[in-house]
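Researcher: Final request for today, and then I'll write up notes for the group meeting. The sequence and the SMILES for pyridoxal-5'-phosphate follow.
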Amino acid sequence: MTIDLRSDTVTKPTKAMLEAMFSAEVGDDVFGEDPTINKLEEKCAALFGMEAGLFCSSGTQTNQVAIKLHTQPGDEVICDANAHIYYYEGGGIAFNAGCSTKLLNGERGKFSAEDVLNAIRADNVHFPRTSLVAVENTHNRGGGSIYDFIELEKIAAVCKKNKLAFHLDGARIFNAIIETNKSAKDFGELFDTISVCLSKGLGAPVGSVLLGSKEHIYKARRIRKVFGGGMRQAGYLAAAGIYAIDNNIARLKDDHARAKNLADILKSFHYVAEVMLPETNITYFRLVDSFPGADFQQKLAENNIKVISLDNQVIRMVTHLDFHDNMLERLEAVLKKLA
Ligand SMILES: *Cc1c(COP(=O)(O)O)cnc(C)c1O
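Model: Predicted protein-pyridoxal-5'-phosphate complex:
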């Protein structure tokens, strides 16, 4: 039995999900004729109380389409220095949209409305034009941290006042929703566009949806085509997304509970220097210097356990729907042997 905690993207479709995929009704989506994709886009939009949706191949694609949508070449995008759109999307902000970035140093990936206010460029020919603010919730490199909703409301107000677009990288937005008393619609009200991943905690094999106004999504559809992202009978994939939304949201709570258990277990070992308190499904911890991260990973690998390291000594474990209590027990036993 392999235990794979590298990411919540490693899950495989269940039999029920595969059956939903096999029986999907499909058509050519570039002609707007795939009923299952149309259904997924409408379903997601309705869930967040937004007008329209656009099914894309990945979360990188939804984010990059949104950035291109809200900016002109030469503009500046305000985001956190650890944001996925900046850190993990291959320089896409510059490559795809021709924009520069104003990076903020938030706490676990979360900056404040005041930070945004201070980062907006004055109207002066020397400066780039600030046109977009992007936040991430939950925050990947912030250890699955949840944004304070009141702060998001304040940032939204700053954006509105300064005529800036406001985008949410919501790859793991359902992890935040399930852990707080905020609904998808609450988030839908705050943002111009939201990117939602189906292939993270929700367990679908492929896909993300970009949400926004009819006008924004109309333009986004053209950008997706230019980026080579127009798909044909992809309703087979959209069917997995519909199944994931119908069945795999509430259970994210289990992933969060296991991540917390895991953090408690890790804290008890002398070779763990520090554990970042998991707010959702991502547990980060730092090994003491005397236990090299590469050795730790090697020992786990010998026991068929896969993890990822960030900086040599910082290890990441992500819980997901293919990680069960019996695996947590086996992992605990292996970790004990290392002590
Ligand atoms: C995974 C992820 C994405 C999208 O990644 P893809 O691999 O392109 O689907 C975007 N934002 C965050 C925060 C992520 O964790």
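Model: The first helix runs from residue 15 to 22. The pocket of pyridoxal-5'-phosphate is lined by residues 58-60, 63, 84, 136, 140, 169, 171, 197, 199-200, 208 (CB under 6 Å).
Researcher: Thanks, that's everything.
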